[in-house]
Amino acid sequence: MAKRIDVRGVNAYYGDVVAVRDITMRIEPCSVTALIGPSGCGKSTFLRTLNRMHEVVPGAWVEGTVLLDDVDLYAPEVDPVEVRRQVGMVFQRPNPFPTMSIYDNVLAGFRLNNRRLRKSEADEIVERSLRQVHLWDEVERRLTKSGSSLSGGQQQRLCIARAIAVEPEVLLMDEPCSALDPISTLAIEDLISQLKERYTIVIVTHNMQQAERVSDTTAFFNVAGQGEPGHLVEIDETKKIFSNPANPSTEAYINGRFG
Ligand SMILES: Nc1ncnc2c1ncn2[C@@H]1O[C@H](COP(=O)(O)OP(=O)(O)OP(=O)(O)O)[C@@H](O)[C@H]1O
């Protein structure tokens, strides 16, 4: 089941440097939220605070609260590995494990979580996940081939299949189309629109048309200057942000006047 994310007063640090400050927002289940803003304003850093990936960087830490429905992801008893199962992630560069087959790539999340599967169960998960990302028909006959034998767009769909195979509640996507050609980009965008029926999706994108096409809600981040932390300027319905934003800097960014 898709879950709501409630972010309250989140600061993210690299050592003693604050990368993003005082972020508060609510992300609704079964919706797509786009994070936009100029380079260095902390979109990716903030995204990674939503599944405890930020703290994987040595010296990096988080203050504040991130609730997944009612569970605080940063509570001491919460296991970050379990958080990352519930909140899956897709990265900018398609990154299938190159030495693994297509089949094993889809199941990689289960191996990481040390879950053993019966062969029939594994077959079912592989087929279901690949069908959900519309890759099944293209790879059905070569499941034992390496994941890196696929095209860029197919590899990214394989990575999305790998992320959803473990049935997360939330899917985080960090510029998932930036390494893809326009046709693969449209295929991923269509897929995002379908996946939101089941998942809460948060996507970082530099592409304004993409934010407008795929998201229900848009959050605009900005940074006051070199060495300053990124902050959230405004978050609203995508239609409103793109037609009548509350803050002049949002409009300037969207219209390409900076960033
Ligand atoms: N591993 C790191 N160690 C130290 N500082 C970092 C690290 N990663 C990012 N930063 C800094 O944190 C700030 C936010 O970076 P982040 O990558 O989150 O921004 P972004 O908005 O996603 O940028 P872009 O759009 O260019 O990807 C920047 O000042 C960046 O230099």
UniProtKB/TrEMBL annotation:
This is Phosphate ABC transporter ATP-binding protein (PhoT family). Residues 5-248 form the ABC transporter domain. Coiled coil: none annotated. PROSITE patterns: ABC_TRANSPORTER_1 (PS00211), ABC_TRANSPORTER_2 (PS50893). CDD domains: ABC_PstB_phosphate_transporter. GO terms for biological process: phosphate ion transmembrane transport. Keywords: ATP-binding, Nucleotide-binding, Translocase, Transport. It holds the Pfam family ABC_tran. It comes from Thermasporomyces composti. InterPro entries: AAA+_ATPase, ABC_transporter-like_ATP-bd, ABC_transporter-like_CS, P-loop_NTPase, PstB-like. GO terms for molecular function: ATP binding; ATP hydrolysis activity; phosphate transmembrane transporter activity. It comes from the Bacteria. The keyword Transcription regulation does not apply. One of its GO terms (cellular component) is membrane.
